[in-house]
Amino acid sequence: MKKVLLATIFAGAVAFAGEANATAPAADANATAAKADTNATATATKGDAAAGKIKFAACAGCHGQKGERKALGKSEVIAGWDAAKVEEALKGYKTGKRNKHGMGATMKAQTAALSDADIANLAAYISTLK
After folding, report:
1. CA 111 to the chain's CA centroid
2. What homologous superfamily is domain 47-126 in, according to CATH?
3. What confidence tens digit (pLDDT) does each residue in 22-34 have?
4. At 75, phi and psi to the nearest 5?
5. pLDDT digits over 34-69, tens only?
6. What pLDDT score does 45 carry?
């Protein structure tokens, strides 16, 4: 009985050790992927105005084709804003920390699905509007 118990414990220990070694490369791969994502995010912060223009189509209904209108007659005109101001505003709305002119809930819903890259792209495009 002792031999069977010891053999079972030994087999379990060997299997556990093998599993731990098998997950180590996966952990390394995950760390590499996370580092690549971080680098991509850092690059995306600059924003792509052409991609932002495409995303802005959803914004134009309220803000105007050139950002020249006060959305729903309440907000500021966004044409002329620099990219940093746009990015800060969109991130604030997305997190629910910004509520300018009573637009917090509306803009939170509008920004909920935007990625950081989308926000950077929109900021790059909106900053070109004069």
Report:
1. 10
2. Cytochrome c-like domain (1.10.760.10)
3. 444 444 444 444 4
4. -75, 175
5. 444 334 333 336 999 999 999 999 999 999 999 999
6. 64
Tokens of 69: 């209108």
What letters, b where the CB count within 10 A reaches 16 and e where it falls short, cover 120-130?
bbbbbbbbebe
Of residues 98, 83, 81, the one with CA closest to residue 44 = 83
- Give the integer Cα–Cα distance in Å for 62 and 101: 14
Q: Taking the alpha carbons of 38, 39, 40, 41 in that order, is the dihedral positive or negative?
A: positive
Highest mean pLDDT (candidates 2-6, 18-22, 73-77): 73-77
Could you identify the residue written with the tokens 């590499």? 32
Helices (H), the chain: 2-44, 49-56, 60-63, 83-95, 104-111, 116-126
- Write down the residue that tokens 């490369």 correspond to: 25
